[in-house]
Amino acid sequence: MSDHTCNVLFLCTHNSARSILAEALLNHLGKGRFTAYSAGSSPRTHAQPHPLALQALRQAGIPTDGLYSKSWDVFGAPGAPAMDLVITVCDSAAGEACPFWPGHPATAHWGYADPSAGEGSEEDQRQAFVRTLQLMRQRLEVFVNLPAARLDRQSIEQTARDLARS
Q: What share of the chain is helix, strand, coil (3-state, %, to 5)?
């Protein structure tokens, strides 16, 4: 894997908040070594990324162009990009039976609380998205700074799983 871009798919149930945040953040931090995608097991019809997710990304200086909610079936279809790593970012998606992923990518689970489930003032809800983005950044900064030699399937799976415990 060290001689090509590492493709990472982030999964969440609705693909509107956590997986969208992770996709945008990794594409921003990835330095051309990583290409991130996101999808959901059951995105809502005509669902779009949560407005507070997009706001948190923009306020952090992370581009939001091209982000949209989609089904994980897209990535199991013929012609889909082959994934090197699939990371679930919500507990419900982690417990679901995933589709067959071409190439048998490494897998990991990074559980985050759903920032869109929060109650309270609009500011409290906005801060929940900012906190989730910050937690993701901590893990992804370690990940994107791995030496090229550590981007083989076994190493990225172990690193991703180790980061789940941090």
A: 40, 15, 45
φ/ψ bin of 61: left (φ > 0), alpha (ψ from -120 to 50), beta (otherwise): left
Q: Does domain 6-153 have CATH number 3.40.50.2300?
A: yes
Which residues are catalytically annotated?
Answer: 12, 90, 98
What's the start-to-end Cα distance of the chain, in Å? 24
Single-letter residue type at 40: G
**Half-sphere exposure (CA, 13 Å, Cβ side) for 92?**
11
Length of the chain: 166
Which pLDDT belongs to residue 120?
86
- Rounded to whole angstroms, the Cα distance separating 67 from 49 reads 7
d(CA 54, CA 106): 28
- Look up the pTM and report it: 0.92
